[in-house]
Design a protein that fits this description.
Layout: H1 3-21, H2 29-62, H3 76-101, H4 110-115, H5 119-123, E1 145-152, E2 155-160, E3 165-167, E4 170-174, E5 179-185, E6 190-194, E7 199-203, E8 209-213, E9 219-225, E10 237-243, H6 245-259, H7 271-279
Parallel strand pairs: 1-5, 4-10
Antiparallel strand pairs: 1-2, 2-3, 5-8, 6-7, 6-9, 9-10
Helix pairs in contact: 1-2, 2-3
The structure holds copper (II) ion (CU).
Length: 282
């Protein structure tokens, strides 16, 4: 293979790899952070991959007829170079990943809520249907929307405790607003997964796992169960719809007037008002 041809192949490979790293249009702040980190790591990984491959191919080609190979001699300068370069790369990867992992929309931890006790705890409590609220994390602002997601074999119940609304077919949230999803299960372990919005969290019986998102792009996205949970697992699908604020409010009002007589209790997070609605197979 001559040099021009080799150069052309190398260019093609670089082009394809760059095309693969082209960031996808993000639909939520979660997805945005994840894609951005992925792209950053690829920009580091691609040159390393190419460097290793080029050295490998060159070595095979250059020494293919060598019947008397010699061992590598000590080269202090080279050793220092690759040690320092590796350290810099690992530092970059560590810092980039840690920054994303520390973001509340990627990993919401109870530290922020419990660390701010007791004032924050008194002011805001998570709106969920079970009285002990084990594991549920309170939102950090009053304008946040809270939805409880109850997984069961084999379906979903999306409960809006503050509005007294529940939906078994569709999870609807407003765009550009902080949304807290309190996820739990009524039987075995399930998992909520909305790939397009970068959301994934286990649904575990007897406790809540809260995730936070801000969806930026109105539209309908596929929600899956991501934990094998029995013969109906593959049918555990639902639509997650992101609506502009006014449409979301209209949807909520329509659900309140249409679905149940208990729904008029606006602002009440009373669990007893919700339980009979949730138990009804809608
Ligand atoms: Cu499931």
């Amino acid at each position: 293979m001559n040099k021009t041809r080799l150069g052309r192949y190398a260019l093609l490979v670089v082009g394809l790899m760059l095309a693969a790293t082209e960031p996808v249009l993000a639909q939520s702040v979660n997805a945005d952070l994840i894609y951005e980190l992925n792209a950053k790591l690829l920009y580091v990984a691609i040159p390393i991959t190419l460097l290793v491959q080029v050295i490998l191919v060159y070595t095979v080609w250059r020494f293919k007829d060598n019947d008397d190979p010699q061992p590598t001699r000590e080269n202090r300068r080279l050793e220092i170079t690759w040690t320092v370069a590796t350290a810099i790369i690992l530092l970059f990867v560590g810092i980039a990943a840690y920054t994303v992992l520390g973001n509340p929309v990627i990993a919401l931890t109870p530290d922020s809520a419990e660390g701010a006790q007791p004032q924050a705890q008194q002011e805001l409590e998570p709106s969920v249907t079970h009285p002990n609220r084990s594991g549920a994390i309170a939102p950090d602002s009053r304008e946040a929307v809270e939805v409880e997601i109850d997984a069961f074999q084999w379906g979903w119940e999306f409960i809006y405790p503050e509005a007294g609304v529940n939906s078994s077919t569709e999870l609807v949230i407003p765009a550009n607003k902080p949304v807290y999803l309190h996820i739990t299960s009524r039987d075995v372990i399930h998992a909520v997964h909305v790939p397009a919005l970068g959301l994934k969290q286990d649904a575990i019986p007897g406790q809540y796992n809260t995730i936070k998102t801000i969806a930026t792009e109105p539209g309908t996205y596929q929600l899956y169960c991501a934990e094998f949970c029995g013969s109906g697992h593959s049918k555990m699908l639902a639509n997650m719809t992101v609506m502009p604020q006014d449409e979301y409010q209209a949807w909520l009002n329509q659900q309140q007037s249409g679905s149940s007589p208990n729904a008029s209790a606006n602002g009440s997070a009373n669990s007893s008002a919700i339980a009979p609605v949730a138990a009804n197979p809608a």
